Amino acid sequence: ASAAVAALEKAHAAAPDSASIRYHLGTALAMAGDTDRAREMLQSAVDAEGFDEIEEAKRELAKLEP
């Protein structure tokens, strides 16, 4: 998970407006145990809308809700 986070952090830096990258980064962060940042990335992706994985992002975000 940490390798995925590192790769996706680079992708996010290169394309910060990509909701899809934020979704994948949020998922990787959750797997790495960084639930606060994971929620932040997933919420940001869901708020952006208009990307293929939005339903998956909503499900992942729901899993992280307290």
Structural descriptors:
about 70 residues; single chain; about 80% helix; mainly alpha
Describe the protein.
It is a single chain. With 66 residues, the chain is an all-alpha fold. The chain is 79% helix and 0% strand. It is built from four helices and no strands. Helix 1 (2-14) packs antiparallel against helix 2 (19-32), helix 2 runs antiparallel to helix 3 (35-48) and helix 3 packs antiparallel against helix 4 (54-64). The chain is globular, with a radius of gyration of 10 Å. The chain starts with a helix and ends with a helix.
In DSSP terms (H or I, runs of 4 or more residues), the helix count works out at 4
N-to-C series of helices and strands: HHHH
Overall pLDDT score: 96
Shape category: globular
Distance between the termini: 22 Å
Gyration radius over CA: 10 Å
Summarize, please.
The chain has helices at residues 2-14, 19-32, 35-48, 54-64. It has 66 residues and is mostly helical.
Q: What are the SSEs and their pairings?
A:
Elements: H1 2-14, H2 19-32, H3 35-48, H4 54-64
